[in-house]
Amino acid sequence: MAEPNFVATGTIQDSTFVVQDATVPYSGVKAAVGNAAFIIGVAQEWAKLAPIPGAGSQAADAGDPIKVYTIGDICLLQSTSAGWAAGDRLTSDANGNGVTASGTAYYGAVALTTLSGAGKARVLVLNGKNP
């Protein structure tokens, strides 16, 4: 398992986009809530707790360490029911899930595989803004 490299400032689901939280300089991240903020990476692919009855499925809560995949990393990203095509630039929906970027949206990854419907698929973390 990879070493945590950031600190969550709120609840973050696994395999979703995250953005920097300026209230915790250098190490704070929070769940992305749309495509208006610069996406810095994708949250870890595992839940913070073991899969036992009553355990939450989130990757981190406020104050927890969290692994964030950043530029050049390949990881899994959660999709909405819309899915995506290989090669699509992906941005965040209101829940941090990946959707195909359009207009001048910030993107945080490029799809490596095609995915039809909701699920997780491999992406290359690469950030920027559509022209």
Number of domains: 1
CATH class: Mainly Beta
Strand order of the largest sheet: 7-1-4-3-5-8
Q: How would you spell out the order of helices and strands? A: EEEEEEEEEEEEE
- How much helix is in the residues? under 10%
Cα shape: globular
Write the layout of secondary structure elements.
Blueprint (H helix, E strand, L loop, with lengths): L5 E3 L3 E2 L3 E4 L7 E4 L7 E5 L14 E3 L4 E2 L1 E2 L4 E6 L9 E4 L5 E3 L5 E6 L7 E11 L2
Word description of this protein:
By secondary structure, this protein is mostly beta strands. It has one domain: Virus Head Decoration Protein, Chain: A (Beta Barrel), CATH 2.40.300. The chain has strands at 6-8, 12-13, 17-20, 28-31, 39-43, 58-60, 65-66, 68-69, 74-79, 89-92, 98-100, 106-111, 119-129. A hairpin with a 7-residue loop joins strand 3 (17-20) and strand 4 (28-31). It starts with 5 loop residues before the first strand and ends with a strand. The mean pLDDT is 92.
In short:
The chain has a single domain (6-129), classed as Virus Head Decoration Protein, Chain: A (Beta Barrel). It contains no helices and 13 strands.
Features:
131 residues; mainly beta; Virus Head Decoration Protein, Chain: A; five-stranded antiparallel sheet; 42% strand
